[in-house]
Write a structure and sequence with these properties.
Helix content is 32%, strand content 21%. It is an alpha/beta fold. The longest helix is centred in the middle third of the chain and has 18 residues. The chain is globular.
Length: 342
Amino acid sequence: MVLGTPRGADGSPEHALEHASARAGARAPILSVESLSLSLRGTPLVEDVSFTVAPGEMLGLVGESGCGKSVTALSVMGLLPTPPIAVSGGRVLFEGRDLARLPQSEMRRLRGREIGMIFQEPMTSLNPVFTVGSQIAEPIRIHEGLSEKAALARAADLLDRVGLPNPKAQLARYPHQLSGGQRQRVMIAIALACSPKLLIADEPTTALDVTVQAQILALVDGLRRDMGLACLLITHDLGVVAEICDRVCVMYAGRIVEAGTIEAALGAPRHRYTRALVDTIPSSNPPGRPLPSIPGNVPPPGARPAGCAFAERCGAALDRCRSEPPPWESDGARAFACWNPA
């Protein structure tokens, strides 16, 4: 593909992103999201989203709140209520199986065993009336058929692996007796309990202080490397993505607008939204000056414009940006969709 290839047969987002991934040296993916579209009672939530994640790779999915990152992750896990939300197009392939069309009984066998997820807020994700040990042991007993004693022994090993001191004593504690960082480590232990092939981490450092954030991210990155996990990291922190991810997809108003290697997509972004995000990073600005911000808000589902959804917030928008969807282009290490690239 060359710059300026239009949308269509060879200019689809899926083709452009696959081309960029292949040129970047990506391995065969374990997860392939192909032109996924989700709708809520006919209103588009996510449109034409495509990306891949390979074993041992960490892909960052970034964007402001309301861009569709968590909804996309929940669709991979099959955790969206259907109805009212429906898959209106595309596929979610995990080792060749289309997760979007698997029966719930089959999805229950995959969740926790082959696909693990670290949810955004551990205090609301952990059950307050069950001990930490019982919650870690539950997927082990369900998926591997171990006895309660053996499952609790595995749970203690997992707590030790995620860095909780005195893990056997921690098994009898309840979530409210743990700090935020400790609860997040418990969530990681649950996600890794059955040695999954794919780990989805949805804002794993929400509401944690900076020191604990660094510890949790280092833990996830280390486990990913040690276990050869395919990892999808959802975050709004570009600094985190630049530090631990291999590739990045930038999402805006339900669509991927730029994707590629960290060096290309964040080091020299082409889409104006990616450029605006990078410009807000403190390290991108000289000391003593106010940090720039992006004016306006992400357009909600049902109120997205016909052309580029970022046009009304973009200082370099052309007339056609407001009326025509931009074509996908690829320069090998990244793909982007912008009429007036940075």
